[in-house]
Amino acid sequence: MGMFRRVSSAIVIAATVTLIGACGGDDKSPTTTPNGSAGPSTSANTDFGPAEGVVIFGSPETTDDALNRAIEAGAPLKFFLAGSSRSDGSFDGVNLPGEATVLGTSLIDPASAEFDAAYEEAYGRSPVGLPGVREAYDAVYLVALAAAAANSTDSAAIRDNIHYVANSPGEIFNPLAMRFDEAVAILQGGGDVNYIGASGQVDLTAKGDMSKGQLEVWRRIGGSIAPQETRDVDLAAEIAADVPSGELHTAADAPGGPLRIGVVLPLSGDNADLGQAISDAIDMAVDTINAEGALFGSDIEVVRADDAGDATQAVSAAQGLVDNEGISAIIGPLGEDAAAAVASEVAGPSSILEIALSTAATLPTDPAAFLIRTRAANTLQVAVDANLALESEVDVVCVLHGSDPESQAMAEAFKAAFEHKEGGVRALVAVADGADLTACLGS
Hints:
By secondary structure, the protein is of the alpha/beta class. It is about 35% helix and about 20% strand. It is built from 13 helices and 15 strands. The protein has helices at about 10-25, 60-70, 115-125, 135-150, 155-165, 180-190, 235-240, 270-290, 310-325, 335-350, 380-390, 405-420, 440; strands at about 55, 80, 100-105, 170-175, 195, 200, 210-220, 225-235, 260-265, 300-305, 330, 355, 370-375, 395-400, 425-430. The chain has a 7-stranded mixed β-sheet, sandwiched between helices. α1 (about 10-25) runs antiparallel to α12 (about 405-420). The longest helix is centred in the middle third of the chain and has 20 residues, at about 270-290. It is elongated, with a radius of gyration of 22 Å.
């Protein structure tokens, strides 16, 4: 173990809390706020020796610039990147020495052969390559199971039972292998279920983010990007993220009406095809649940609204669902800006649970504010990026990032993860306007 992995317990705890906040977009983060404004930059930590590797978060253009400038500044030739850099454009004009190591990670969309076959049979097309389809299907089941556990269609009651039906412990419930009414019977008997669905094991952190996912590790070698391996990641194991088992909160009297779920998706515009595919997955889940006993003696109902991929229209659409349709939850929107706007202007103020379908690191998920998501956040990558650095015998890093809020959030999340793993971060530096890399590199 290198000397720079010896970090005080106070720093480790702080780092863990920071990463959990980054995964959930905690609006108390000192460096990135939900509206994307940046806080103070991190100054160089001179307690560490020179950087032994460089970590980069940003667009291909930012990555290209950062690589060139780092190499010119005499940086060590070990670079660690994220999925936003997985492009040949990240290496345009970069003269990488032959001995350079360039490793990166990318989120992998979940896969389920059983779900894929059922979806294709129902709708005549494969869901492979359609982001959000499996996660929306799982969102329906989480809402329905939490309502069954709560014996209520009240949104706050559903929210308060989400962790109970999603996380361990509990009897595993996979809707592709077990009937919905069997799961309801377990819950109504005071038992616990652990949901595993189309996107795999849906375990949620206390901040309402996915704690598990799958990543591809890739390498830049011989002038091309080559996949290396697939890794599972579990934030509870990696950075001690809080993944609560939840508690059962059950109302004495069952509701008198059906569970109604609102859906806000781009059903017109550039992403209409994807919106429709996600909508189909929601129908698939609802139709199966209704055929297997429904809930509270009534079929679950779905009410849709079109956001056309626009945040302003998403807010209007969601407000209409809340005001006029008696919904208990909203699934969607798909985009970061739309999801955040609906959360702050509609779901939170109205106490209606929103299950967003965005992967953005800056999305401020928080069950207390009625916002969670069933898609893995981009920040899930940073734990594996940290592991790759340490496996490459890099104990001290310089972190370079773009000026956009997403890149800043990723950089902060990496810092928290790396420090939790007892690595040293000299500084976080935005690569813009000719920023001096000397202090960051320690050269």
